[in-house]
Design goal:
The complex is a heterodimer of chains A (about 150) and B (about 160). Helices cover about 10% and strands about 40% of the residues of chain A. Chain A is mainly beta and about 150 residues long. By secondary structure, chain B is mainly beta. The chains are: A mainly beta (about 150), B mainly beta (about 160).
Amino acid sequence: MSATIRDEGEILTAPHVLEYPYRRSVGPVLGRFFTEMRAGKLVGVRTQQGRVLVPPQEYDPETGAATTSEFVEVGPGGVVTTWSWVTRPRAKQPLAQPFAWALIKLDGADTAMLHAVDAGDIARMRTGMRVVPRWRAEREGHIRDIECFELES
Amino acid sequence: MSEEQKPVTSIKTPMRLEYRYSAGIATSRFLHGIAQGKILGQRCPSCKKVYVPPRGSCPRCAVATEEEVELSDKGTITTYAIVRVPSENIDVPLPFASVHVLLDGADLPMFSIVQECPLEKIRFGMRVQAVWVPKEELGPTLQSIRYFKPIDEPDVPADQLRETV
């Protein structure tokens, strides 16, 4: 500890890290989403109106009604509906190099999901572009089982 | 069902905030003092209270404190709690006593722990003294004081500690 204290003349400074190692309970609906994700599949849930929500939710945000128990496989590819470029990624963000946060509407879904897009350069980003997931080999049932999305070749 | 086939019921969502804390002028002087095995407080020019560790001002009078006061490393326990629940970054074996120690000459108690004492003996008014790390390990950190231990002196009566509880 004392080794990391920096003596800047008279004034001392030291790193101060505040860390909460939370684990969050996901419930049956998101639980299904993450269980499928671990198996390399993407699923949404059908609402009573017949729309498909991805990620699945327990209630339809448009009507407040409970969603049905029908899970629908979607993707794996999808379309970028909006995006924002990250010039200087922070330490815990999905990619070390500049990337885009994007809302991605997976094929078969009626809603868009937030994830990272590794486009290499902002010039390659377009609303409406097609992307596919880059899966991790080791998956645990977490949104990071998808490393990021990349341009569909 | 193998571990891998079990449905996912929870996800890790850690939060981490990285700061660089600046001790400021008063607390830096205090920590430089600690590195020499001395405990330095500061006295309020208005109410005359002595604060340790000093923050550079008196919270009651809202004036800057500048007069430096060297304090004893002996003091009195003004409150305590027995810690039985483990937590990351605590390397003291459980259970242990977390205490407020009012150093002789100070008007504000300081946070520390007590060792070399059965937990059931720890009490309000008990006299204790700092146990320092060896001289060559002293540094500008409160970890230079390893803990407080009981000393053979009579307890301080409650009415003398009323203001600090």
